[in-house]
Design goal:
Layout lengths: L10 E3 L6 E3 L6 E5 L4 H13 L3 E8 L4 H4 L2 H8 L3 E6 L1 H15 L15 H15 L3 E3 L8 H12 L4 E3 L10 H10 L13 E4 L4 E4 L12 H4 L14 E8 L2 E5 L2 E2 L2 H14 L4 E7 L5 E7 L1 H17 L2 H19 L6 H13 L5 E8 L2 E8 L7 H4 L12 H9 L1 H13 L2
Parallel strand pairs: 3-4, 3-6, 4-5, 6-7
Antiparallel strand pairs: 1-2, 8-9, 9-14, 10-11, 10-15, 11-12, 13-14, 15-16
Helix pairs in contact: 1-7, 4-12, 5-6, 9-10, 11-12
Amino acid sequence: MKGYRYLNSCYFLSPISFLPYRTKMAKEKVVLAYSGGLDTSIIIPWLKENYDYDVVACCVDVGQGTGETDGLREKAIASGACDLYLIDAREEYLRDYVYPTLKSGALYEGKYLLGTSHARPVIAKHLVEVAHKVGAVGVAHGATGKGNDQVRFELTVMALDPSLKIIAPWREWDIKSREDAIDYAEAHNVPVPCTKADLYSRDANLWHISHEGMDLELPSNEPQYDKLLKLSNTLEKAPDAAEYVTIHFEKGIPVSVNDKKLASIDLIAELNRLGGKHAVGILDLTEDRLVGMKSRGVYETPAGTILYKALDTLESLCLDRDTQAFKRQSAIRFSELVYDGKWFTPLREGMSAMFDSMAETVTGDVKLKLYKGNVVPAGTTSPYSLYNEDIASFGDSHELYNHHDAEGFIRLFGLPLRVRAMMIAKSKK
């Protein structure tokens, strides 16, 4: 048709004026895991400068606190984001990630309660969902190239939608330190919640608070607990009197504290309050990162420390010897899966199903004494208790256990030892 001529994807000739005009094409979008902290705040302008994307900020609330989520939309928009999604995933986090890990008894390297590890999959899961909702071509995160979180975020994205592009600015930009990051923020008029005088890297959620960086990077330094701790008293400031707490479990899940039934979020908050008061759950840990280096951090996990001790105490009453032994062995592997970011894998899902089955009879009450950083069992009851007083007592109970039966059992149990001893004696003749 005369009067029309294709110029390029954005320009056409008007049939009336015959003047070129531009039809604005929408920019591609990327969804950023956004916390409002130093790293993610400066990533917004960096993405716009280096990728020319519209940045959709996504904050997944896993209990980091209202201080971190209040005013977040205004802050994200002021930093250059085109929109912000604030998602309340607190209950989901506890139900689908924390409690399955608690049931397993998993402690990474026998100490770490995995507070950062099992929060990353739920955050990344919602990143993918928001990316689908807004039609984004990719997702971005603020994890460093030296840490574990980059693996946890990206394995989750790969498992849920491998077509999404993943951008990790810390692996690309010229910023080398948190001091550099603050300089970048100041140059781009981006408000950040820290200064060069307080550059601890912290991660908070319902389950824990972690602290890394600054003086903690030297293992010879004692942590400055008075300045560091957020949830907990120091040992010196903890009460001089012990306090008792009773937790009721149903199938391995905590449901009440001191005879008061509580929703999961409130239950964890109450145990954090009680444990923090008595300096419970403070851990100074040097751990082996997935990427091959050692790192040091201080973790506060009051509620988690109480619950792990309580559940282990209850299981000793309700689970048989073979199940307990296999569960402890399996917990090591499960802790590695969680730590390494392999949440959305067939093995993790299968192991969680196994732990659910094991927990079918783990129901009852556990009383604990909290005192100066200690959690001490103080009595356990369960309708599924395998402890039988008639058998365990020193008295005679012919119907259930006859002392004389032990003689034949021991002779058979020790048969390999007797045979070996006879062989050695014969060989010396």
